[in-house]
């Protein structure tokens, strides 16, 4: 790609960028959140959301309102917007969009396989799948018994296929293996996405690479954190780390050796970016969890992505911000939900 | 007329609504549309307001109604729209209505659900029969193919092994058959191949008729497929894949008899289902028909109810929680109506304590209300599009009614075109009650709303067309031309005299292409044409030169009159807002500046017209040169228009020069002086009024109110001074900017009025071109073909006249007329910083179904 996106970016993608910036303006504001905090029932939430850009998206829902209804409708709305972007996009933006959906597709595949393992019906799990990661072959996932089966039979024609190169094996898919498969898929996905953005160059690379680097490192930390006290060997653990982050290579090697949270913290101390994050984590009683801190940092990066023009990062950032917003609303709403006995 | 000159006086009123009667009172107010509510709960979020529950109930009702309308529309039952709009339902009826609607909804949902189920069932059965019919042909083929397949395995050892293994395990041939969506066939087949590694045989055929999808209701093409496979394992996989691609799988009969049995069974079941479905549909139709009768009134009622609760949400509660307090803007003229409406509302609800109101003094600027009728509405809209007038400001719409069509007509001066436009507008006006016009689409609606503007524009165009003597670019000779050509041939003179006077003889006529009439020869010019331009100019080659000079002067004269009028209207504003100093310090210098330069220009034009005749025209000075000399003081004195011209001009220039500094500095300095003088003065004044108020308070309530008002006014004025004085620099800046804009504007705006000339010229030339290029060509052709040719030529002429000259030219003239009003006229006096008065009125609610369906 030639340098100087500003000369030709708008020819192909100007409309969509304008659109996404308009959509970004419709994100809930501080005032909206203050109002949401004041809500006392789900109905209140619904009424307040009506005054925002969500409009009367819940108008046709029969009573009683539930959190899952709100969640599905919000997802549908995001999905509609995303589909619109995607349908109007040109190369290489459409590839970018495909990359964006891949992470949801991975999640959906794993979700379905877990469901099959627990002998749940496909329909039941299908409802829980993220609409952005939907694809036709998805429902046939439970045919496969081994990862290579999965690849050969089901996923070979989907965009996920290239990410399978590292995880072809004949192991049966039990819970641990599924989790390993997820992480390996994610690793190759992130690396591929990173490479795509890097090759694209220009502002897109400048914006997207730090975001993806952060994403990769976050995964490395979380994998480490989750693997404490499991039977996962340290070598296996190291193979799961995405190698496109700032931690690569020394940090990852150190992380692979870490045995508890303090050691992990020590690794992070070597990096100026992650040190303050780990410092912000509260101790066991209250305070922020590591996950919250990471979310905050992610949101911050996504918001900053809007400060530059002529790049694809805004689409990624918008989707992530909208997702965070949905998480917030669902979190807020679910506090009203009283289990009905 | 008075109400159009200024917006109505408003007052802020407080309504005390007893909580029991508030709903009825608001319903009465909404029907009348008298008042605009102010939101007293601005900092309360929408879900914390008092009547949120009721609003929610309304929304629930709306949801049910929307569902009903949707179902009724789907069943193609006409929805009657009532003529009258029913009043908001009394509270007692609301519950009843809600119950009724909810029952209806439950019933409808159940019936539709049953219907859908039956329908789905039926579709499935139909699909099944289709599948059976199509697969019958497959089997025959399969039988033919199978031997070849069996022969095939020996070539590959692997598959042979598998095959024989399966046979040993007792695996037998299985079939899965069904229907699949056309678009998915290819992917489905590929997936089957990959998963089952070729141990299946897939046969499929396209179904010749498209069927409805039982799930989405879409009508699409389907493929019937038959998969034959060996073994349980693969069978499971095949079934899963079928699920994945949403195939409709039906059991496959193994023998011919079975097939026959199933087919017969299916046929009878389909028959049964048809009858049941018909019955259900009939019943559904009955229910919907009954619902359709009352749906319209319900929709309106619920809308009104919701509007009422929205308004009630704007009211604040009184301390005792017994009554609601609403603050409303109400035109003073309507106060008694408001009282009556409140009484009515209270009476209707049978409350013991009536709701009442009182007016409260306020310092806030009230909204602007200018009452319009169907005639003035269009003109008011033109003004409002620029900006809604400030409260009690002079409303330019009143003058726009005449000046707008007039300025338009100056640019659109053609008798014929104007008449066509007039006829079109007249047609609209005469049929204005026709329902199709009222509900017409965007562009037609635009014309319809501006029908009275169009009417006047057409009329005025007829008038200016008569003045320009233009009818489809041709002149009309009504009274006989004032010029005589024969007088040029006068034979009473000697040839020498003839030569001297420029009279014509045969040789002159024969050898000159262009001949000139000389008005100074007696008998050639017998006096002006009675109305407008002499038709003889239509033949003259110097017609354009003549018309240009005439139209240019006319544009300048009209423009300056228009602008001067604007400045004078400013004086009315200053008088009304009690800012007399503005008259002396702003308006008068502005007027002097304008009149001393451009007023004098007009004077020169008119003077030259009156004083110089055909004989003396050769010595007449050029106005342009005279006007330039006015500023340049040339060394050599020219022979001017009149004696003493130099002195008059110098005096005028001096006045102009003097008015500029007054304009720049007068108002700011005066305000500064006023503030310095008033600051102590003001305190003593307010003290004085306070004393007076104390002393007279006991006398009468009415009296004290008056004093209070007066006091308020003084305080208002004083406060304004204070505010304005606090930033003297800002006042100075505003005034300087305003003055610069005005002084430069006088020149550029005058030039801007020349568009009147330019557009009228363009219009005349365009219609002239159309005539010469089309009709004249058609008329010149020989009689035999001419008749045939003339018809299409006239048709084309009519079409082009309408589209280019009437619509396109009309639009451009319209836009320029708007610009002249907005920029050149209104910036002389019009602030346009008001907000529109939007009354709470049920009439503003839309009463269309289409809106609530969308």
Automatic annotation (TrEMBL), chain A:
<dbReference type="Pfam" id="PF01992">
    <property type="entry name" value="vATP-synt_AC39"/>
</dbReference>
<keyword id="KW-0813">Transport</keyword>
<keyword id="KW-0406">Ion transport</keyword>
<comment type="function">
    <text>Subunit of the V0 complex of vacuolar(H+)-ATPase (V-ATPase), a multisubunit enzyme composed of a peripheral complex (V1) that hydrolyzes ATP and a membrane integral complex (V0) that translocates protons. V-ATPase is responsible for acidifying and maintaining the pH of intracellular compartments and in some cell types, is targeted to the plasma membrane, where it is responsible for acidifying the extracellular environment.</text>
</comment>
<comment type="similarity">
    <text>Belongs to the V-ATPase V0D/AC39 subunit family.</text>
</comment>
<dbReference type="InterPro" id="IPR016727">
    <property type="entry name" value="ATPase_V0-cplx_dsu"/>
</dbReference>
<dbReference type="InterPro" id="IPR035067">
    <property type="entry name" value="V-type_ATPase_csu/dsu"/>
</dbReference>
<comment type="subunit">
    <text>V-ATPase is a heteromultimeric enzyme made up of two complexes: the ATP-hydrolytic V1 complex and the proton translocation V0 complex.</text>
</comment>
<dbReference type="InterPro" id="IPR002843">
    <property type="entry name" value="ATPase_V0-cplx_csu/dsu"/>
</dbReference>
<dbReference type="InterPro" id="IPR036079">
    <property type="entry name" value="ATPase_csu/dsu_sf"/>
</dbReference>
<protein>
    <recommendedName>
        <fullName>V-type proton ATPase subunit</fullName>
    </recommendedName>
</protein>
<dbReference type="InterPro" id="IPR044911">
    <property type="entry name" value="V-type_ATPase_csu/dsu_dom_3"/>
</dbReference>
<keyword id="KW-0375">Hydrogen ion transport</keyword>
UniProtKB/TrEMBL annotation, chain B:
<comment type="similarity">
    <text>Belongs to the V-ATPase 116 kDa subunit family.</text>
</comment>
<feature type="transmembrane region" description="Helical">
    <location>
        <begin position="584"/>
        <end position="607"/>
    </location>
</feature>
<feature type="transmembrane region" description="Helical">
    <location>
        <begin position="406"/>
        <end position="430"/>
    </location>
</feature>
<feature type="transmembrane region" description="Helical">
    <location>
        <begin position="785"/>
        <end position="808"/>
    </location>
</feature>
<comment type="function">
    <text>Essential component of the vacuolar proton pump (V-ATPase), a multimeric enzyme that catalyzes the translocation of protons across the membranes. Required for assembly and activity of the V-ATPase.</text>
</comment>
<dbReference type="Pfam" id="PF01496">
    <property type="entry name" value="V_ATPase_I"/>
</dbReference>
<keyword id="KW-0406">Ion transport</keyword>
<keyword id="KW-0175">Coiled coil</keyword>
<feature type="coiled-coil region">
    <location>
        <begin position="94"/>
        <end position="128"/>
    </location>
</feature>
<keyword id="KW-0812">Transmembrane</keyword>
<feature type="transmembrane region" description="Helical">
    <location>
        <begin position="451"/>
        <end position="468"/>
    </location>
</feature>
<feature type="transmembrane region" description="Helical">
    <location>
        <begin position="554"/>
        <end position="572"/>
    </location>
</feature>
<keyword id="KW-0472">Membrane</keyword>
<feature type="transmembrane region" description="Helical">
    <location>
        <begin position="651"/>
        <end position="674"/>
    </location>
</feature>
<dbReference type="InterPro" id="IPR026028">
    <property type="entry name" value="V-type_ATPase_116kDa_su_euka"/>
</dbReference>
<keyword id="KW-1133">Transmembrane helix</keyword>
<protein>
    <recommendedName>
        <fullName>V-type proton ATPase subunit a</fullName>
    </recommendedName>
</protein>
<keyword id="KW-0375">Hydrogen ion transport</keyword>
<dbReference type="InterPro" id="IPR002490">
    <property type="entry name" value="V-ATPase_116kDa_su"/>
</dbReference>
<keyword id="KW-0813">Transport</keyword>
